[in-house]
C-alpha cells in the first residue's frame, strides 16, 4: 500500500508559539505578551457584534463590500484594490499560496515575523532568512539575496519584535531594486502606531509588485475575532480573490471590523495612549540600565545583558503576575518583548523591574 504523505514542506513547519495567557494560581495576570490593545475591543464594535449575532443564521456577503468600502473611505484607498482575510495572516497565506510553490524562494529578514517561514513551507516554497543590521532591516542584504528563484520578499514594518522601522526612502530603494517578477509584501500590522509613515501605501498604489497588509488585531482591539486586509495592484488582488473562500469572514467579523474602522475617536485615543505610555516604558527601562531601541509599534523590545539575565527578569515578571514575551526564536535570547499597556500597567512593569534590579 502506498503510504500517505503530506505535501512537500509541511513536515518542515515548526508549530507557531503564541504569547502565554495564564499563570497557574493567579487571577490578577497582566498579559503583555501578544501586543493586544490594553483597552479591549471598541464598544462600538461590541455593539455591532451583538446586532450582527441576530443575523447569524444568514450566510455573510462574499464580497465584503461594506467593510471594503469603510476601509477605502477611511484610509483613502480604492475598493477594487482591497482584499479581506481571517487576520492579515490569511492574506499573507493567500500571497504565498498564489505566487510561490516548490522550487521558489521567499525572503524574510532575521528578526521578521515567525509566521513567514511557516507560510512559505505551507506553499511548498523555501524560506530564505536574510541578516538585519543592528535590529533594522537591511535593504542591501535583501537585494543581494535575490535569485532567479525568488518570488516574494516579506517585510515587517515596523518590525516585530524589534519595533524599528524602515523609512519610506528605504522601502522605495528596495522596491526599485527588485526584479519585476518579485512581489514585495509590506506587513504593516503595527503601522498605525508609527508617526508620519504611510506604511508604503503610496508604493503599493504606484507599483505593480507591492502589496501592503494591515490588521484589525492591534489598534482596533479585535485580535480574537481575526480580521485583516491587503491592498495592492488590482491584477494581484484579483488573483488572491480566486483562492479566498467565499465565506471566509462571518457576519459578526464583518460588522465588528466595519464599526471599529469607522470609530475614528477610538483609534485616535488608542494611538495617543500608546504614544504616551510607550515613551514612559522606554524611558523607565533605560533608567534601570535596560537597553531598548525607540519603538514605532505598541511594544518595546527590552535587551538584557545576556540570556541568563533575561530569563531572570522574565521570572520576576511572572512572579509579579505579568506575562511578557520571550523572543529567543526571533534571534534575541537576551530579549523580552513587552506590550505597551495603560498607565497603571506600565507602573506595574516598572515596579517589577525595580524589584528585579534590587534583588540582583
Ligand atoms: C508582524 C505581524 N504580522 C502579522 C500579524 C498577524 O496579524 P493578524 O492577527 O491580523 O493575523 C502579526 C500578529 O501578531 C504580526 O505581529
Please specify the SSE layout and strand pairing.
Blueprint: E1 30-31, H1 43-53, H2 65-75, E2 82-85, H3 87-99, E3 105-109, H4 115-122, E4 126-130, H5 139-145, E5 150-156, H6 168-177, E6 183-187, H7 201-206, E7 210-215, E8 228-231, H8 234-243, H9 251-262, H10 264-287, E9 299-303, H11 307-319, E10 322-323, E11 325-327, E12 332-339, H12 343-359
The structure holds pyridoxal-5'-phosphate.
Characterization of this structure:
The longest helix is centred in the C-terminal third of the chain and has 24 residues, at 264-287. This protein has 2 domains: 10-40 and 265-359, Aspartate Aminotransferase, domain 1 (Alpha-Beta Complex), CATH 3.90.1150; 43-263, 3-Layer(aba) Sandwich (Aspartate Aminotransferase, domain 2), CATH 3.40.640. The chain is globular, with a radius of gyration of 21 Å. It has 360 residues and is an alpha/beta fold. It has a 7-stranded mixed beta sheet with strand order 2-8-7-6-5-3-4, with helices on both faces. It has a 3-stranded antiparallel beta sheet with strand order 9-12-11. It has a two-stranded parallel ribbon with strand order 1-10. The protein is built from 12 helices and 12 strands. The structure holds pyridoxal-5'-phosphate. The site of pyridoxal-5'-phosphate (PLP) has 13 residues, from helix 3.
